[in-house]
Specification:
single chain; alpha/beta; nine-stranded mixed beta sheet; 12 helices; 34% helix; 19% strand; globular; disordered N terminus
Length: 378
């Protein structure tokens, strides 16, 4: 049984957000981060798993992906062949690595800098869930993604040089911080727009190494915002966390644009002039995994189109809402129609974005609706 709407039609190379004759402000995305897969295991019983406890449960029919793959997929799906998407990463020489490379080729990602590393396994995450929806992750630390080095990133310097001021560089977790620092260094040297995300545990080093001086847009979830701004999230409401983090970071890094997501509590953006809040769109949630990556991908796509900051935030919210309605952490059935319906549902009346979503394939130059392939047989 297909898991997505039957009305979606064939995707073409134009992408979901195409306007006839409109040039992209940025035409190349170069990024590094985790490429991997995982599984979801639903535990029986809501009580916290004990240290020596044996607990029954069942695997869920969900496909998990890692950060770089999720973001690259969505940016390519939204912008199509006009946007060159160049991931830098590594997978293992195993079945998972082969499958992931095949899926990335399906959407025409440029894989010249994604190596299959012999003698290693592909990054793998085991997500355990309680019946109430909470849970945790166990992730391999000796995977191929852990072998992504600054030298590997340096091999792509020609791409940074060619992209120059028309490129976006993205540094994401799940690969060593040294590799991401090198990517931000090259992006700074060659004039790319720089986007980054860091895990909560990395924030101390991020501050010490001055990495934020090489970032234009920083994406944070609530916990990461607390860690970076050194505030106690246990005593602050969501709004206060966002306001405090943005206030502290903007004072020291006035060039920095910020995005702070807090799940169902909504999201905040700072464009250097003002703080903007948007509530999360109420949708039937199947899994929240990957929603933050989808939110960032939507923002990057809007930035590449040269859309205003308010629209950038709206597209992030729309894509995050769409992503949580799929059991998989990449929702391959997202369409222009479904995004427009979500905009209506969330009362997000952004004229620039609504014009994009109103474009149709054919004579007006819009991209077609995609075929859902999430439940294809392997």
């Amino acid at each position: 049984m297909r898991g997505e709407p039957e009305e979606v039609a064939e995707r073409n190379s134009e992408g979901l957000l195409n306007i006839q004759g409109r040039n992209l402000r940025f035409h190349t995305l170069i990024g590094t981060g985790g490429i991997g897969t995982g599984s979801f295991f639903l535990l029986r019983g809501d009580h916290t798993l004990g240290r020596e406890e044996s607990r029954s449960g069942r695997f869920l029919d969900r496909r998990d992906y890692c950060k770089l793959h999720i973001l690259c997929h969505y940016v390519k799906a939204l912008l199509g062949e006009r946007m060159s998407v160049v991931p830098i990463g590594r997978v293992g020489d195993d079945e998972a690595g082969t499958r992931l490379l095949d899926e990335m080729r399906e959407v025409n990602l440029d894989l010249r800098f994604v190596d299959m590393l012999r003698g290693t396994t592909t990054l793998y995450s085991f997500c355990f869930l309680y019946p109430d929806g909470s849970g945790g992750n166990l992730t391999t630390e000796d995977s191929a993604s852990g072998e992504v080095s600054a030298d590997l990133v340096a091999e792509a310097e020609g791409e940074f040089r060619r992209a120059g001021g028309n490129g976006i560089a993205v540094a994401l977790p799940e690969v060593p911080l040294e590799a991401r620092a090198k990517l931000l260094e090259l992006a700074t040297h060659h004039g790319l727009f720089r986007v980054a995300a860091f895990s909560s545990g990395e924030m101390g080093r991020v501050r010490r190494d001055g990495l934020l001086e090489r970032v234009d847009l920083l994406a944070l979830n609530r916990d990461e915002a607390c860690s970076l701004a050194e505030v106690n999230g246990d005593v602050l409401e969501h709004q206060a966390v966002a306001e405090t983090a943005i206030d502290r970071l903007s004072r020291n890094h006035p060039q920095l644009m910020l995005s702070v997501t807090a799940g169902t509590a909504g999201s905040w953006s700072w464009d250097g002039r003002g703080l903007h809040y948007l509530p999360a769109i109420e949708v039937p949630v199947i899994t929240t995994s990957g929603a933050g990556d989808a939110h960032l991908a939507g923002m990057i796509a809007a930035i590449a189109l040269g859309l205003p900051p308010s629209t950038t935030h709206v597209l992030g919210v729309l894509l995050a809402a769409a992503s949580v309605t799929s059991p998989h952490t990449i929702h391959k059935g997202i369409s222009r129609r479904s995004l427009a319906a979500l905009a209506d549902r969330g009362a997000l009346q952004d004229e620039a974005l609504l014009r994009l979503l109103a474009q149709r394939s054919g004579e007006d130059g819009g991209g077609g609706e995609p075929v859902d392939k999430t439940d294809r047989k392997e």
